[in-house]
């Protein structure tokens, strides 16, 4: 049955469930989508929640401004940008760790 409870879909993503829900009841899809995303944000470490909320707000804004296809492209671009930021942070951290292990650098 298409209208399964949201809790059954919190642990694993079911494309068929979400696709069918969107096709048959877009308003319920949006309600459950919002609840699903909020639950995942609440399950994240407290230190990351505000950043996740901001990213979700950016995605929701994009979705409201563009067609579904255009929004998908824009959100993919946003995710690439976020991954580049993460890579830069990891590179900086790696350099700090490597420098701290360099015997030529005095503490």
Describe it for me?
- The protein has 107 residues and is mainly alpha-helical.
- Helices cover 76% and strands 0% of the residues.
- The chain has helices at 15-24, 26-43, 46-65, 68-100.
- The longest helix is centred in the last third of the chain and has 33 residues, at 68-100.
- The protein is elongated, with a radius of gyration of 19 Å.
- The N and C termini lie far apart (64 Å).
- The model is unreliable at 1-6 (pLDDT under 50).
Summary tags:
single chain; 107 residues; mainly alpha; disordered N terminus
Give the termini separation: 64 Å
Radius of gyration, in angstroms, nearest whole number: 19 Å
The beta-strand count equals 0
**Largest sheet: number of strands, sense, barrel closure:** none
User: Which band does the percent of strand residues land in?
Assistant: under 5%
Rough outline: elongated
Individual helix count: 4
What percentage of residues falls in helices of 4 or more residues? Answer: over 70%
- The ordered H/E elements are HHHH
Class based on secondary structure composition and strand pairing: mainly alpha
Average pLDDT metric: 86
As residue ranges, the low-confidence spans are: 1-6
């Amino acid at each position: 049955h298409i209208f399964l409870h949201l809790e059954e879909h919190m642990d694993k993503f079911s494309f068929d469930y979400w696709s069918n829900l969107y096709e048959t009841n877009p308003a319920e899809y949006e309600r459950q989508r919002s609840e699903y995303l909020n639950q995942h944000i609440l399950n994240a470490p407290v230190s990351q929640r505000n950043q996740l909320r901001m990213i979700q707000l950016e995605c929701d804004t994009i979705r409201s401004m563009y067609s579904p296809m255009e929004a998908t492209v824009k959100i993919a671009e946003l995710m690439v940008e976020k991954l580049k930021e993460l890579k830069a942070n990891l590179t900086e951290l790696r350099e700090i760790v490597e420098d701290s292990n360099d015997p030529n650098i005095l503490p």
